[in-house]
């Protein structure tokens, strides 16, 4: 078949020809448009088109950029037109060519009659048709697919004047309107650490220093003119105007020297609540925290939608409330403040988990030296206390430990301390009637009165709670027991011989109504527990490190023994004033009984006067804090160490220590030896780390102990 050469003036369509072998038109073009990505077959004017083989361009000029003659010949003509009915001309010619008296556009005859321009138009129309159908298919596809926006969007949004209701949450946005002349570093720390769900956004727009210098120059000129005018009028000096002049001049110098830069800053806070009442409570809390620092914060009334968008992490400031600020105050806006507890004195407690700095602190430099350690079993509370004891002994602090589980024996033996085993079979005895030596200003009457009160508390533990009548009889019997040994208000308490439990029983038997009490004391004087409570003290505590072990005592005797030990230790502490630490492990045992808990609280409350720091250690947080004296003991501890907590106790711990939601998560997710360290009003996340030699001495991990024995 002869070829028809046609050249388009635009240079797009170069050649149109028919191949006698393929019986299909061939289109050559040097530019074919953008190739479709969707693998879809679209039925067009010339039959079925495979969009993988033909390019489509929205440009009307020619066939579009990128048309290639080879692609047209091999793909368009061969693959697409072959699928039409004209593929077999001899068999289907009558049906193809005549349809209602018109030539079929899909027939060969129709294509042969077209000029190059008409053929180009037909191709463009087909391309447009294909593109429309592909867009329609894409539209149908996307209507059935959930996007990320669909997944994160709330079920409903209601915008009001003062808030936005997002599903079940109520949202309110605040913006900082004005700042004081001087702002302190970390002024946002209070808001960030508050137990309020919120989003904080800070938009910072740098400004050109040259433009700022021009503005400041004009500002200085106006202030100077005002000052000069006031002086000419003879008016009194204006301190505010003079301060502004100094500030502007100082800022000009700093910017000129490159020390400072200038910015426009917008600070937005968006809070979330479940109820309107809770939203108002949170709002007052945020506004109160800001007003304490003379920072005026306003609610984004009538712009809550803009405020909410400005608080989203999409870098879009629709609120646009900004203030001028230079580098120094801008740096104070950094909301995350990492406290450091490092000093020249004290001992190393651990590593700051925020910035890996050392936590070195002297507990005796606080308002009181008392400490509190709360943790679950196996979280490392005894390990942390033993590490503190080891390091405190190195700086000259004396240590006394009440050890219910024999965890401190290796430490005492290694350091040459005194390890006192208190049990029914041991020779060590403590007389509950012992009296301390009087301090300057104290009288024998004061000491005797205090001893009687303590002994009545001990009797409540030994005999069960005494009723008022029994308590009166017991008080009289104790006083007469001391009087029997010629101990009265005028005695020299340093030279007396104190009574024993046997003396008390004899007195009770001689008092009307005291026989029953004497019978109840029988097991402690002549019965099963006789050897432990009715002999004179024979313990020498002339050592800087003393450990009292009560592991071998029955559970019923442990509270009594701990009470007696604390009374004995207290007498020694009062007698000689020096820096001491008293560590009470498993303190929850004493908190089970009112009298022992009351005695422990009194000890904690008075310890500061005698240079004593009481360390209270417990794993049963509920038993400890549910006691009437639990929270008062917490209040009187200036230093606290909270290690890993259980989910059952975290709310109680959080309420007691005013922890934020983030701090609760820290305690729930902490590993062994990790937690939060409180020292006065400051607190940091801590990790307890011991040196290898220290670890070898203080560990109670069975695996580590076996490894040490093998290595030895």
Question: Which helices and strands, and how do they pair?
Answer:
Elements (H helix, E strand, L loop, with lengths): L12 E7 L4 E6 L11 E4 L2 E4 L18 H12 L8 H9 L10 H6 L2 H28 L4 H5 L4 E3 L4 E3 L2 E10 L10 H5 L4 E9 L2 H24 L6 H18 L5 E12 L2 H16 L4 E4 L4 H8 L11 E4 H5 L15 E6 L5 E4 L9 E4 L6 H14 L3 E6 L5 H7 L2 E4 L22 H20 L4 H17 L16 H9 L5 H6 L1 H4 L4 H4 L11 E5 L8 H18 L4 E5 L3 H4 L2 H13 L5 E7 L2 H6 L3 H6 L3 E5 L6 H8 L3 H9 L4 E6 L2 E6 L4 H7 L3 H10 L1
Parallel strand pairs: 14-19, 14-20, 15-17, 15-18, 16-17, 18-19
Antiparallel strand pairs: 1-2, 3-4, 5-6, 6-7, 7-9, 7-10, 8-9, 9-11, 12-13, 12-22, 20-21, 21-22
Euclidean distance between termini CA atoms: 104 Å
Task: Report the major sheet.
Answer: 11 strands, mixed
Structural class based on helices, strands and sheet pairing: alpha/beta
Number of helices: 28
Label the overall shape: elongated
Count of individual beta strands: 22
What is the alpha-carbon Rg in Å?
Answer: 44 Å
Look at the structure and give the mean pLDDT.
Answer: 81
Strand % is 15-25%
Uncertain runs:
1-100
Helix content: 40-55%
As laid out across the biggest beta sheet, the strand order is 13-12-22-21-20-14-19-18-15-17-16
């Amino acid at each position: 078949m002869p070829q028809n050469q046609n050249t388009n003036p635009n240079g797009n369509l170069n050649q149109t020809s028919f191949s006698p072998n393929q019986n299909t038109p061939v289109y050559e073009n040097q530019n074919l448009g953008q190739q479709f990505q969707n693998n879809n077959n679209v039925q067009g004017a010339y039959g079925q088109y495979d969009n993988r083989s033909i390019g489509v361009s929205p440009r009307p000029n020619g066939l579009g950029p990128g048309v290639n003659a080879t692609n047209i010949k091999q793909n368009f003509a061969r693959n697409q037109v072959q699928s039409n009915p004209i593929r077999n001309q001899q068999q289907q010619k009558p049906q193809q060519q005549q349809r209602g008296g018109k030539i079929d556009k899909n027939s060969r005859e129709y294509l042969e009659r077209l000029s190059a321009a008409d053929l180009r138009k037909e191709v463009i129309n087909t391309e447009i048709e294909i593109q429309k159908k592909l867009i329609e298919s894409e539209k149908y596809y996307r209507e059935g697919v959930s996007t990320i926006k669909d997944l994160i969007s709330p079920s409903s949004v209601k915008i009001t004047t003062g808030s936005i209701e997002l599903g079940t949450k109520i949202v309110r946005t605040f913006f900082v309107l004005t700042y004081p002349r001087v702002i302190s570093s970390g002024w946002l720390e209070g808001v960030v650490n508050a137990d309020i769900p919120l989003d904080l956004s800070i938009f910072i727009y740098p400004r050109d220093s040259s433009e700022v210098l021009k503005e400041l120059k004009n500002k200085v000129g106006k202030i100077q003119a005002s000052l000069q005018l006031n002086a000419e009028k003879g008016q009194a000096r204006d301190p505010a105007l003079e301060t502004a002049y100094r500030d502007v001049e100082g800022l000009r110098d700093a910017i000129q020297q490159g020390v400072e830069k200038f910015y426009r800053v917008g600070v937005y806070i968006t809070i979330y609540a479940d109820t309107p009442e809770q939203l108002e409570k949170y709002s007052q809390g945020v506004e109160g925290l800001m007003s304490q620092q003379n920072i005026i914060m306003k609610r984004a009334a009538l712009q809550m939608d803009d405020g909410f968008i400005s608080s989203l992490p999409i870098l879009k400031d629709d609120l646009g409330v900004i203030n001028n600020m230079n580098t120094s105050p801008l740096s104070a806006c950094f909301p995350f403040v990492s406290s450091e507890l490092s000093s020249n004195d004290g001992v190393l407690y651990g590593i700051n988990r925020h910035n890996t700095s050392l936590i070195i602190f002297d507990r005796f430099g606080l308002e009181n030296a008392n400490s509190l350690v709360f943790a679950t079993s196996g979280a490392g509370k005894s390990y942390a206390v033993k590490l503190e004891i080891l390091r405190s002994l190195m700086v000259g602090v004396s240590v006394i430990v009440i050890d219910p589980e024999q965890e401190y024996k290796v430490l005492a033996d290694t350091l040459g301390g005194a390890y006192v085993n208190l049990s029914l079979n041991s020779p060590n005895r403590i007389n509950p009637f012992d009296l301390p030596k009087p301090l300057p200003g104290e009288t024998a009457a004061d000491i005797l009165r205090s001893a009687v009160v303590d002994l009545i508390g001990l009797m409540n533990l030994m005999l069960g709670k005494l009723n008022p009548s029994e308590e009166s009889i017991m008080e009289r019997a104790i006083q007469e027991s001391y009087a029997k040994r010629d101990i009265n208000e005028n005695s020299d308490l340093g030279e007396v011989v104190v009574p024993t439990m046997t003396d008390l029983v004899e007195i009770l038997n001689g008092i009307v109504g005291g026989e029953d009490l004497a019978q109840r004391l029988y097991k402690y004087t002549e019965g099963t527990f006789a050897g432990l409570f009715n002999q004179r003290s024979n313990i020498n505590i002339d050592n800087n490190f003393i450990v009292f072990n009560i592991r071998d005592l029955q559970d019923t005797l442990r509270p009594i023994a701990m009470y007696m030990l604390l009374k004995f230790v207290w007498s020694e502490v009062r007698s000689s004033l020096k820096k001491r630490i008293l560590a009470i492990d498993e303190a929850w045992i004493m908190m089970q009984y009112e009298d022992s808990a009351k005695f422990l609280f009194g000890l904690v409350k008075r310890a500061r006067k005698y240079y004593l720091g009481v360390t209270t250690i417990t794993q049963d947080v509920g038993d400890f804090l549910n006691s009437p004296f639990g929270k008062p003991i917490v209040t009187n501890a200036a230093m606290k160490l909270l290690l890993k907590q259980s989910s059952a106790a975290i709310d109680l711990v959080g309420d007691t220590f005013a922890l934020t939601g983030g701090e609760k998560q820290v305690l729930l997710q902490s590993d062994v030896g990790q937690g939060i360290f409180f020292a006065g009003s400051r607190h940091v996340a801590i990790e307890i780390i011991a040196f290898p030699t220290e670890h070898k001495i203080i560990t109670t991990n069975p695996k580590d102990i076996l490894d040490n024995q093998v290595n030895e």
